[in-house]
Amino acid sequence: MKYYLLKFFVFFSLVSFAQETSYEISYQRSFNGKIIENQDLLKVFATHNQVVLSTEKIEANQATLPFEKTLIDTENLSFYQVATLSSNKVISYKDNEAIKNQKLEFLPETKKILGYLCKKAKTVINSNAIEIWYTNELNLKASPTVLGINLGLVLEITRNGNSTTQAIKIQKRKSKNTSNTKIDNTVDVLTYKDLLWKSRFTTIPVFKDEIINFSSEAKSNDSIIRFANGTIILKKIKVPNQTKSNLAFLDVIEQSNGDAYDRTGSVFIIPISNSKQTFLSGLEKGKEALPIYENGNGKKYQGVVATSTYEPLTELMRFFTPFGIKQYNHIELKDKTWENQVSYRQEITDVFQQFAGREVWIGTFIGNYDKGGHKITMNITLHSEDVTFKPTKLFPLFNTTNIMEMAGQDYGTMFDVEKGLETKINLSQPLKNAKIRYITTGHGGWENGDEFVPKKNTILVNGKEVFQFTPWRQDCGSYRLYNPASGNFPNGLSSSDYSRANWCPGMVTTPTYIDLGDLPAGEYTIQVKIPQGKPEGESFSAWNVSGILIGE
After folding, report:
1. Same domain, 161 and 214
2. pLDDT digits (tens, 9 = 90+) for 50-59
3. Which of 39, 53, 64, 219 is at 20 to 30 A from 276, Cα to Cα?
4. How far apart are CA 318 and CA 146, in angstroms?
5. Is the Cβ–Cβ distance between 27 and 4 less than 8 Å?
6. Three-state secondary-structure class, residue 284
7. What is the DSSP string of 227-240?
8. Per residue in 59-113, pLDDT tens?
9. How confident is the model at residue 17, as a pLDDT?
């Protein structure tokens, strides 16, 4: 495909003025002495005062977007960096200082490259040792990068002794328009780098500065639906087909909009299904519309386990808000400069790619009883990768996080009896390399409750223990600067410092993967047991656990 550059204000070209000779130099890259296979050769086009850095594919109009070229004025020691982001979008920035500010050390060694006597210089950039070999025999200034371009013709650059770019061919040319590049839309360097970076992947915007709060005045609109007095927001999106062959990442940015406390947050998917009931029924009609789970302790839990006709929430991310970030940054402590926002980023490829090409509801919950609540922005990004993804299947098993807490859904207290949590699944076909994607966090009970006391989680399949571990985080003090409103105690600790049951205020709880091997077709009973602590007065313990069966 040929890429056309539109509306250009500056025209930069290597032109043969009278009989002036221009040069085309080809460079190849090697690593540890081995030439890199199937590489796109670097191409340098140079005259006495102008240099263009390009590649073989760019010059043949075969480059993959985005791509960059560098246009260097060797008389004024300045350059333009030009990026083609799409067939009709080109950006650039100009640098007048980088070449002038290069600090090089000159060494006595010499050697010949392509028959030309070369001298050696070296420098250190970002802890990388760079060796530069250049010649002055052609009365030409050029280089495969801007580094060393004022020395002469650079024929070899080696980084850290193992990564080398070396000239393999020099050609004289006497034709006009040796390499033409036009410049448009000059921006500052940070904007340039940001736009170039973002053009390398697909961004699916989900929420932008949305408030998640507790208010009877919470209103839905054409795109964002609110439930449970505003503590749940939901949006319908179409998952791109490319998702099945891309890495997927979820990004959430959170700030307090009034709430001072650490809260449970969850990002989840509700598929649009004609064959099974989903959690959407409970959101639209109330928790009574969800199937009931009972474990013998006398309580009824709504919509927490899979049945033959019901699919529980598919959790993408479990996150925890810090104590009052941004909203309470006016609290001053010596040597404490509070963060303005907390960013949560997690890979979700194995779950999200299951929904490629489908419409789904994607939602976020933050449990709170504050009218100001929290503000979030959320995106999903898709990144191409040179790997073959095996086709997988996904079966949501259970999710005890009471997403509808502010609409009366019960807490996950079913672990106070021996049965704990139990669900059944019937596999109509064998499942290879099966694993459970398991997220667990303990809550409540104050200092003697399960939030602050390590408790073993045991997972059983058909009555046989397949995995057990004690989820616990001891690094919560690392997040202190995200927690301006965290309570301070006489012992010198803040509330956000204390170790917790697999979470800290201001962090993501990552999934644990439980390998089950190859599962033949048939019915399986999956059970989770946790020695839940007993209530103390009005305080009680609860566990938010979610599980998804994934396999080939």
Report:
1. no
2. 999 999 999 9
3. 219
4. 45
5. no
6. helix
7. EGGGTEEEEEEEPP
8. 999 999 999 999 999 999 999 999 999 988 999 999 999 999 999 999 999 999 9
9. 37
Q: Are residues 121 and 153 in the same domain?
A: yes
Tokens for 42?
Answer: 């670097």
Distance (Å, whole) CA 318 – CA 374? 16
Give 309: exposed, middle or buried? Use CB within 10 Å, 0-12, 13-18, 19+.
Answer: exposed
Tokens 């204000």 correspond to 9
Torsion of Cα atoms, 25 then 26 then 27 then 28, to 10°: -170
CA distance 443 to 450: 6
| Residue 58: its H or E element | helix 56-59
Same domain, 98 and 51: yes
Residue 5 is assigned to a structural domain of this protein: no
Output DSSP code: residue 85: E
Q: Are 158 and 145 in contact (CB under 8 A)?
A: no
Supply the CATH number for residue 31's domain.
2.50.20
Q: How far apart are CA 223 and CA 377, in angstroms?
A: 15
| Residue that has been written with the tokens 């210089």 in this structure | 121
Count other Cβ atoms within 10 Å, centred on residue 223. 10
Its pTM stands at: 0.90
Is the pLDDT at 14 greater than 50, yes or no? no
- Domain residues for the domain of 357 are 201-551
Label residues 58-68 b or e (16+ Cβ within 10 Å = b). Answer: bbeeebeebbb
